[in-house]
Amino acid sequence: MQKFDFQEFVTALDAGQQAHLEWSRRILRCTVLRSFPDDDVMHNDAHHLCQFGQFLAQHLITFTSINAEQTQRLVTVHQQMHDTIRNLARPISQGLAGNIEDLEHFERCQAELIDHLAYFKTQAIYHYTQIDNLTGLPLRQRLIQEFRGQQQQCSGALALMFIDVDHFKSINDLYGHNMGDTVLQQLVLRIHDVLNIDQSMYRYGGEEFIIMLCAAQVKQAEALAELIRHTVYHTPIVHQDDATIQISVTIGVALARHQEPLVSVIERADKAMYYGKQHGRNRVINADHITLENKS
Ligand SMILES: Nc1nc2c(ncn2[C@@H]2O[C@H](COP(=O)(O)OP(=O)(O)OP(=O)(O)O)[C@@H](O)[C@H]2O)c(=O)[nH]1
Predict the structure, then answer these.
(1) Which helix (H) or strand (E) holds 252?
(2) What is the structure's pLDDT at 170?
(3) Are both 198 and 112 inside the same structural domain?
(4) ipTM
(5) Pairing of strands 237-238, 244-245
(6) Where does the GGDEF domain lie (predicted)?
(7) Contact 280 CB / ligand 1 (< 6 Å)
């Protein structure tokens, strides 16, 4: 599972923008004082070598995942800024005035670059508020946004699994909160390994997770839930000195009815999960049938 630190991204974005503004200030001084800019400005690859260019290259996938078209424009505008500055600086180095068109082009590029960066920063912060820092999973808000679209796309029925870790408080009490955090991270990795690309997982609350998937029939969703339950139970989490912690999960499964609102589907899956808790935990319960699966 890919984890990404959006806070770091936003900080680096600010630093890159600041570096570029500082760089423009240096150019302005050269223009006024008729001095020649340093080699870093005149280098043909300056757009790759400058601080912002390096940041852009490192995070190109992130920029593209936010908005591919605008990323392409950002890359182009950034290179144009550097190209224009070289054009502007050449006559100055010969004691001549710079070209006004180059200067205006540079100013337009600079303004456009800043607009793009403001857009990407807003988007990055928006994404950041929807991703759980501990597990890297999208949060409840994202589930709310994606549910309706997913329901329309689904050719079969849309199923929700409500997953709750059993006796998680005892894990915190016995091993400490940090180990509890590690257990949640490891649990998510184990579950993620059995999911395919169309099955989305969300962190719903503390030790509660929701998986949304298209299922031809409820049996298909139940089979996946059972695989998750089995995998979690039979893959203990390694603690220090090779000691292991065995954990289990109780899962409620509900198939969304026609036009059923998300809150109602969650409520039914949650109730089924709660029923599983009351009947021994470490089991999968179908909301419609409230049947117990065998413990293994
Ligand atoms: N380490 C850690 N603990 C968390 C986190 N979020 C919630 N918790 C803890 O999870 C525990 C949940 O406990 P309970 O709701 O009592 O449930 P439980 O002990 O899992 O028992 P059952 O659900 O009945 O099997 C609480 O002690 C919370 O403090 C987290 O991000 N990290």
Answers:
(1) strand 249-255
(2) 97
(3) no
(4) 0.98
(5) antiparallel
(6) 156-289
(7) no
